[in-house]
Amino acid sequence: xxxxxxxxxxxxxxxxxxxxxxxxxxxxxxxxxxxxxxxxxxxxxxxxxxxxxxxxxxxxxxxxxxxxxxxxxxxxxxxxxxxxxxxxxxxxxxxxxxxxxxxxxxxxxxxxxxxxxxxxxxxxxxxxxxxxxxxxxxxxxxxxxxxxxxxxxxxxxxxxxxxxxxxxxxxxxxxxxxxxxxxxxxxxxxxxxxxxxxxxxxxxxxxxxxxxxx
Length: 214
Hints:
Blueprint: H1 14-39, H2 51-56, H3 63-67, H4 69-107, E1 114-116, E2 158-160, H5 190-202, H6 206-213
Antiparallel strand pairs: 1-2
């Protein structure tokens, strides 16, 4: 049968190569232990240089694949299915990017509309535009239809956004609360939009985002 040179020899099979590597690494580690414990009389082995080899030993359970024909068929089928799965993953990524872009166009800037204590922002851009305490919700977006009905804000407070005042910066600390998922998700930039779409796809937390925006 031979070892490696001729066709059909032991190491010409991929599963045998895996088996050979795992066994060789195991014997290498044993020889390493014998060398330091008996030849150099070390009581504590210097294992820093052997951590990589010890990691390879974790592949030892895979040797069973070479012994059981049914498992080999399943593993081969999984390996052969990877290229088509890559195409599916790329298509899914494209869908995520499309939905994230759609969310950016629809909801960019919405998270800045909050109930505030003053009608206009401070004259000093370094000052914070104070929010209504303990009101972690978005308010109705003012339009020419509802500008005098700035909905859902407490009496004598105002639904305003720095988005409408170019000179006034938005303080992102306003969103670092539980009601806005601590500013992890949102649609103010591409990264957060993609993360929001992926979170929605998992089925976790999508209702919180829905009720926040609608």
